[in-house]
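REVIEWER CHECKLIST
Item 1: Sequence provided? yes
Item 2: Single chain? yes
Item 3: Sequence as submitted:
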Amino acid sequence: MEAEQRNQKRRRRTFTDEFKAGAVGLVLDKGKRLSEVARDLDLTPSSLGKWVEQARADEGKSKRGTLTTEEKEELARLRKENRELRLEREILKNYLARPAPSVAPETPVLVALAG
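Item 4: Structure as written out by the authors:
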């Protein structure tokens, strides 16, 4: 019976920032073992380990070169901006590749642009 329970996929859960901070505090501040805290709080050790590593990175104490939360937010913002700029460039490139319509010099559009 226990083997069947272990083989079943665990339902995805969400945790508040306060809960995560408390769990991380038990490991970093209280010195408890990660596996012990994970078991006591019914967490997977890998999830708790990610939270602990992120907290270390945010404190500037990461040994893995993990990005801080601020750096991750900036990276996401820059990637989004890059996607938008690439799209704009592609739109302009496609527009400029079209043949220009022939317009008489007296056309109001040209007069408005010139003066």
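Item 5: Key structural point noted by reviewer: The radius of gyration is 28 Å.
Item 6: Recommendation: ____
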